[in-house]
Amino acid sequence: MFKVLVSDPISDLGIQKLFDANDVSVVKETGLNEDELIKIISDFDALLVRSQTKVTRKIMEAATKLKVIGRAGVGVDNIDLDAATQRGIIVINAPDGNTISTCEHTFAMMMAVARNIPQGYKKTITGEWDRKSFVGVELNNKVLGIIGMGRIGTEVAERAKAFNMKIIGFDPFLTEERAEKLGIEKGSVNDIAQKADFITVHTPLTKETRHMIAKPQFELMKKGVRIINCARGGIIDEYALVEAIDQGIVFGAAFDVFESEPPQKDHPFLNHDKVIVTPHLGASTQEAQENVAIDVSEEVLNILLNKPFKNAVNMPHVPSSVLNKLQPYFELGEKLGSFLTQLTKDSIEEIHINFSGELADVDTAPLSRIIIKGVLAHYLDSEVNVVNSMHLAETKGVKIVRQRSSSTKGFTNLITLTLKTKSGEKTIAGTLLNGYGPRIVQIDQYPVDISPEGIFIYISHQDKPGAIGKIGTLLGQNDVNIATMQVGRKIIGGDAVMILTVDKQPSKTVRKLLTDTSEIVSAKEIIL
Ligand SMILES: NC(=O)C1=CN([C@@H]2O[C@H](COP(=O)(O)OP(=O)(O)OC[C@H]3O[C@@H](n4cnc5c(N)ncnc54)[C@H](O)[C@@H]3O)[C@@H](O)[C@H]2O)C=CC1
Ligand SMILES: O=C(O)C(=O)COP(=O)(O)O
User: Over the stretch 332-349, which tens digit does the pLDDT of each residue have?
Assistant: First the structure.
């Protein structure tokens, strides 16, 4: 039974799939602080949050069973991603579900700051009929600067065009072609500062975006500019903004988000008549909350049930076209890693993975993570997973080399894995045979044809007449039935290997009897 903790208010309708799933129990406990979460988190396999729960390293250290943190929304700045990655916890978000709501809230804020709606409302309800103090401006023909042309920024641009605004967009990924297609001008932050009547930000909060609008940018701005932030507190320097308003540069500002949430009672925005605020409501619509909860619960279920998922934040995004191509190789990749590690004696210093044939043209990073997981799992067991396998290998000082090559040795696809140790190296190669599934086709220099599942005995021996018979008899006498046998040798009478698939694990005594046989150099049991 998987246990899912929902620690922020998340739509029940949206997480219905979790309630309905067999083997999943959902516990809703909102408003917990760090200590309270630490006390209970070890019980849970999944945690669902919005922006309120701060998922700290300490919480993750106590979360011994936690596989996934689902963020029902976009921003994951409330989750310690490094800690999650190190502990192999997958963090997923729901990037699409609240785009329109946040875009519409941005417009609500833009119109409110253009027409002084909150200020007008406040006075009117006190009985004052003040029509002089709240003369606003039209959006028509005004220049709107959009910083961050991602999902929300792009939707804002689309709607601003309907208001007949001229738009300047800035985003490191905004190309001239895309800008042209969107019907907007591409500009820099400084261009926007100099030309815009309204400026809205739609970036995440990063080292680069923190205070990207601060005193130097305010000094460039047109008098009377209005500023909107429905993205993240901290992108705009709050104190520099208040100063710019008081200096008469900025006419007014509309903020949905704060550097620290909720803001302190004495925050300068809270009693400034030119600043209007909402309590982080961008995504707070019925539609958005249902959308993000549906998306996140589907993904959480997929992860718990070991099915493919797409919106992992602490793993690079893999387009479904790539995932579909790689998916069939996942089992093979993990088994190759596991098989070869069990054959390798010394500690692994380098992992070399080569992809060839039809795999040479695909982004194989997700498959590499799985192969490395296969390698490390023999030593680290459940501590390693696809999220942290690369990270764990690197922290253990293991060098990872990934290559592609056109040489396929006659196969349509081939994965070759080499593990290098102080004393030498071991290589395995595998392919996916159409209609037959995964196959190990080479071990070191020996061509083989092995289905990678079951119990194996890998025997290095001398190629001598009768050696094979001796081994067969010994195993038979000890009730170990041989299912398949592969033999490979370099030269007649030289070193040879025998790979047996057996129906049950040979006991220690049987293994000893094998290694005591004169022709046998070593016998190793491998379990896949
Ligand atoms: N107020 C609220 O309730 C909500 C706030 N948000 C916030 O809105 C922001 C944007 O969300 P989406 O559009 O969905 O994200 P997105 O990832 O689609 O777009 C973000 C864009 O910012 C750009 N960017 C990153 N660094 C930049 C920089 N230094 N300068 C200029 N552009 C930069 C990226 O290239 C990307 O195109 C996020 O911070 C998100 O957390 C999202 C939903 C609700
Ligand atoms: O999705 C986001 O980034 C948001 O900021 C929405 O936050 P919320 O889920 O409303 O706490």
Answer: 999 999 999 999 988 889
